[in-house]
């Protein structure tokens, strides 16, 4: 039986642990669980899923007693729908389309072989060895009748002819298409160094299997490049496995690019307390191998070196949008622009009626954040946006929904459950409103020009809902010991895009995108 | 016409408060004459359960209360210390491991119904199982049950709600809690010299709680550990017997007891009201500003039947796909003993449904216990043809 917990919703009540202690485990607030528990746990799991106060546990529909709910939304779209991307967002959108009464032909194109799987465990219970990488498949929450073309990446989109082009030369026609191709790990820029044995990235289940094997082999030391969420979680696993670990971070502290400097400082203390050799304001300049092509040491910007057997490049992700080059969509390294209803925008700024976007690549305007365009690489956003996109794909314009979810994100590292609601980088001030940073149990509220825009909790997830409602109400930042947020400057989203406008007649004026030679730096 | 909430509190409201709750929901945040604000709609209750500006701290006592009457961070510290010996992270399997004992006790209680055709399921089943289990967990001698059962009943009558007779109730409360404290205090002293594998011994051995803290935690768990589950079990049989279709389905498919107990927690919750919260500052909910210092009552039972939250709320259904209810409250004060109550109710109701042949209610509605907060039948007399042997 497959299990996945929506940790966006989970508030740490622990009822699942009481009722199925062989499947679910919990630290103070961090939930770890087996995604593919044995069948003899079925009775326990059903009790646990029923008891969850926020109904965050999802199981295979075949294990449930009730037939999955169906809520036909009235409006009928009978054309052919193609979903490009077979991971979380794509799979959820397919399920939502069927649930909402779409009965037409449905095709899902996926680059990876096999069924969609859950990625968050890959940097947690998979790396510790508690869960095998192949045991992370997402539960089938309902029967979904669809044609799955997996193992075949899409290579192009012809908007005018309404076709998706595949790598094997096939063309898949559509009436409406959903783009949900997600991201991949940003590789180490020097290809030869990146190819050394012992140098890893982490995005796919295959990556996780390779890294797990490398950690299980007992390396002298693990070097992690980048202290974002993925890098920090891997460092946490290394310490849990009692492996020496060095983390090299370009910024002043871990997690700064997501949570700002105030919480970053707490994260830095947390890492050091757990024995991480953390080097901030430092970068790796070169990875060096031995004659056998094995990674041996890294050279740092401060002139030092780190001897290690394993290097994990955790420098963020790259959006899988290259295949959209030439499609005429406003797509680039910053994502695929769309409106709040997930409809793609073309280079001219025109909204397309039949092309939709969801998940990590969707760059959408958020009214709560001054209508700024944002992309969110969050599990919860992929699910929420897929639902909105699916609904809008089969609804007429009078019944479309805007994607207005306040972003929620979680990470577990060094025994602490970190959650955030809102956009913490959209802030100029931070105040700790509950608990204490010294005890690593607190809530920090973020504000921009006096209005609450985000909150971050360390082992205080039950309060998140309150802060979410305050953010939604544009409530003032609570008083207290207010500090400067020290968030990185927001990237000007168009900095990397150069366009030219051609034509004079209104019927002819069009934008085209100039691609910078040598690609884009970040 | 008096306010619907006053009619909920009146004894005449006990058998069926739900039409009154429906009236109450027309005014989601209703100010009472005594200054209390009663909140009765799902969203508004959930938001206040998670609002740090709403305090659970009892200020009217001459001593520090147990964690149910404290706010973070004191609440969190004491609850975590008690949790060490009850559930995760330290003792994740403790409650699940009690299942065989719960089953054995239950089987014995139902065996004892054989050879006759009438029983009071409150006295003979719904009460004895939770008491046996909480005594075992805490390390309280089961033979003392006669003493503390009477005290617990008295104590529940002092819960209110209402502001008018508060002083009187507090006096009664002080007297009965004094008796409880002395009883548990003696027990703690005894356990200190002769420890067992129970919660009291565990809290003593940790050395992180004062004697008073252990005593108050013990009193809380002893009372809450059975006074609520009795009602869950009794309300469960009452609901099944009122809904023969439901009873037949659970008899045919015992696995349905799991969604059935969740639905009971929504439909006939043992804890109907939380009456002890106070606004720490002015706060606006449902368009109403509750002034700082105002008492707040959360009508959990009304919220779980809010048609804006759940379709067809007054129907008991085994098929709700995502049953989110307020049966155990929410937020940091979410019921400590919820897993114990769930398992006890699942096991007892499975046994009763599976073994009582031809059960039927003798009195409908049955006589109710006085409290509008912890609401449930005083007796549930049932006639039956036979008891299927194990």
UniProtKB/TrEMBL annotation, chain A:
<feature type="domain" description="FAD/NAD(P)-binding">
    <location>
        <begin position="80"/>
        <end position="386"/>
    </location>
</feature>
<dbReference type="InterPro" id="IPR023753">
    <property type="entry name" value="FAD/NAD-binding_dom"/>
</dbReference>
<keyword id="KW-0274">FAD</keyword>
<dbReference type="InterPro" id="IPR050446">
    <property type="entry name" value="FAD-oxidoreductase/Apoptosis"/>
</dbReference>
<dbReference type="Pfam" id="PF07992">
    <property type="entry name" value="Pyr_redox_2"/>
</dbReference>
<protein>
    <submittedName>
        <fullName>FAD-dependent oxidoreductase</fullName>
    </submittedName>
</protein>
<keyword id="KW-0285">Flavoprotein</keyword>
<dbReference type="InterPro" id="IPR028202">
    <property type="entry name" value="Reductase_C"/>
</dbReference>
<dbReference type="GO" id="GO:0005737">
    <property type="term" value="C:cytoplasm"/>
</dbReference>
<dbReference type="Pfam" id="PF14759">
    <property type="entry name" value="Reductase_C"/>
</dbReference>
<feature type="domain" description="Reductase C-terminal">
    <location>
        <begin position="409"/>
        <end position="483"/>
    </location>
</feature>
<dbReference type="InterPro" id="IPR036188">
    <property type="entry name" value="FAD/NAD-bd_sf"/>
</dbReference>
<keyword id="KW-0560">Oxidoreductase</keyword>
<dbReference type="Pfam" id="PF13459">
    <property type="entry name" value="Fer4_15"/>
</dbReference>
<dbReference type="GO" id="GO:0016651">
    <property type="term" value="F:oxidoreductase activity, acting on NAD(P)H"/>
</dbReference>
<dbReference type="InterPro" id="IPR016156">
    <property type="entry name" value="FAD/NAD-linked_Rdtase_dimer_sf"/>
</dbReference>
Automatic annotation (TrEMBL), chain B:
<keyword id="KW-0349">Heme</keyword>
<dbReference type="InterPro" id="IPR002397">
    <property type="entry name" value="Cyt_P450_B"/>
</dbReference>
<dbReference type="GO" id="GO:0005506">
    <property type="term" value="F:iron ion binding"/>
</dbReference>
<dbReference type="GO" id="GO:0020037">
    <property type="term" value="F:heme binding"/>
</dbReference>
<keyword id="KW-0408">Iron</keyword>
<keyword id="KW-0560">Oxidoreductase</keyword>
<protein>
    <submittedName>
        <fullName>Cytochrome P450</fullName>
    </submittedName>
</protein>
<dbReference type="InterPro" id="IPR017972">
    <property type="entry name" value="Cyt_P450_CS"/>
</dbReference>
<comment type="similarity">
    <text>Belongs to the cytochrome P450 family.</text>
</comment>
<dbReference type="InterPro" id="IPR036396">
    <property type="entry name" value="Cyt_P450_sf"/>
</dbReference>
<dbReference type="GO" id="GO:0016705">
    <property type="term" value="F:oxidoreductase activity, acting on paired donors, with incorporation or reduction of molecular oxygen"/>
</dbReference>
<dbReference type="GO" id="GO:0004497">
    <property type="term" value="F:monooxygenase activity"/>
</dbReference>
<keyword id="KW-0503">Monooxygenase</keyword>
<dbReference type="Pfam" id="PF00067">
    <property type="entry name" value="p450"/>
</dbReference>
<dbReference type="InterPro" id="IPR001128">
    <property type="entry name" value="Cyt_P450"/>
</dbReference>
<keyword id="KW-0479">Metal-binding</keyword>
